[in-house]
Design brief:
- With 302 residues, the chain is α/β, with parallel strands linked by helices.
- The protein has a single domain (8-299), classed as Alpha-Beta Complex (Spore Coat Polysaccharide Biosynthesis Protein SpsA, Chain A).
- It has 10 helices and 10 strands.
- The protein has helices spanning 16-27, 50-61, 80-94, 111-121, 160-163, 170-179, 183-186, 194-203, 210-219, 270-284, and strands at 8-12, 36-41, 68-73, 97-102, 105-107, 128-132, 145-149, 156-159, 223-227, 232-234.
- The strands form 2 sheets. It has an 8-stranded mixed β-sheet with strand order 3-2-1-4-8-6-9-7, with helices on both faces. The chain has a two-stranded antiparallel sheet with strand order 5-10.
- β2, α2 (50-61) and β3 form a beta-alpha-beta unit.
- The chain starts with 7 loop residues before the first strand and ends in an 18-residue tail after the last helix.
Length: 302
């Protein structure tokens, strides 16, 4: 593994307890001591947010266990999408790679080891756009690691060349999906309504950067590496986030790696994709009315 670890970009807003838990989990990774951390703290939307935002910034400034800690305190409220897009771009302007985390993620002690190992293993593979640490919990055993087309958002890493694929224009992405007849494939054979998410982003109903990241990588025919078991638990689906409701959708407990990360063929895993499609179709029932009210928080909050 590279002697120098990727800097970590951590995004927070108004949940000090979530941020403290996220920081503690990150600091428990052995690689944290050699990893620079940049915490991007969004600004308040109004007086009702000011106290929570102050608490978040105090938690960020008190963070320890990293090579160094820089805190970016936004004067205005950018919203999650603009904050992530700006923050990832800012880190990658000075570094070749980055690890990206949001404040409601509790990570495995193997999280940083896995992401940095993946960044090292596939640095020269232009087909690989990112390394992702979360995976949907499925019944069947998955390989130690595998590739899927597209990109993802719950604890991930990329290179400068990978983020260059990102297209912020959701309308252009949606039109390309339609023009090329790839909407159903984008929706994992109809198992999950990602195209509807993109439509809602275009219409201004949501401000998701994540669905645009997925669409950008998908249309560029890029691949993301996933672990066989999730190294991330999302603890923010408790009604505490902007526009969120309490739900356990996509819940997965952060696990451990089974051994050193080994290189696999840079092709999409048909078997892993099929198992994930079956799981999502069963859990979410995309043909039922009212599905959008149960979408994960990251596609519904600004």
């Amino acid at each position: 593994m590279a002697a120098e670890y990727a800097p970590i970009a951590l995004f927070a807003f108004r949940r000090p307890d979530h941020l403290a838990a996220c920081l503690a989990a990150l600091a428990a990774c052995p690689e944290a001591a050699d990893s620079p951390l940049v915490v991007f703290c969004d600004g308040p939307r109004g007086p009702q947010d000011e106290e929570a935002v102050r608490e978040v910034r105090a938690v960020a400034r008190a963070a320890t266990g990293f090579a160094r800690v820089d805190v970016v305190e936004r004067e205005a409220n950018l919203g999650l999408a603009a904050s992530v897009i700006d923050g990832v771009g800012r880190v990658l302007a000075d570094h070749e790679r980055v690890v990206v985390v949001e404040d409601d993620l509790v990570v495995s002690p193997d999280f940083l080891r896995y992401l940095n190992a993946g960044l090292d293993l596939y640095a020269a593979d232009a087909e690989v756009v990112s390394i992702h640490a979360y995976v949907v919990a499925v019944e069947a055993a998955l390989p130690q690691s595998f590739f899927l087309r597209g990109a993802d958002c719950w604890g991930w890493a990329t290179w400068r060349r990978g983020w260059a694929v990102f297209e912020p224009d959701g309308a252009a992405l949606l039109q390309r999906l339609r023009d090329t007849g790839q909407v159903r494939a984008f929706d994992l054979d109809g198992a999950y309504p990602y195209a509807q998410m993109l439509e809602r982003q275009v219409s201004g109903e949501v401000d998701s950067w994540a669905v645009r990241w997925y669409a950008s990588a998908f249309l560029a025919d890029k691949l993301t590496l996933y672990p066989g078991r999730s190294l991330v638990e999302n603890v923010g689906q408790d009604g505490s986030g902007t526009h969120s409701v309490a739900t356990r959708t996509h819940a997965a407990v952060a696990g451990r790696l089974t051994g050193p990360l080994e290189r696999v063929a840079v092709v999409e895993s048909a078997a892993a994709r099929a198992e994930i499609v079956r799981t999502l179709a069963r859990e979410h029932g995309t043909r039922r009315a009212g599905l959008l009210s149960r979408l994960p928080r990251w596609v519904r909050r600004p």
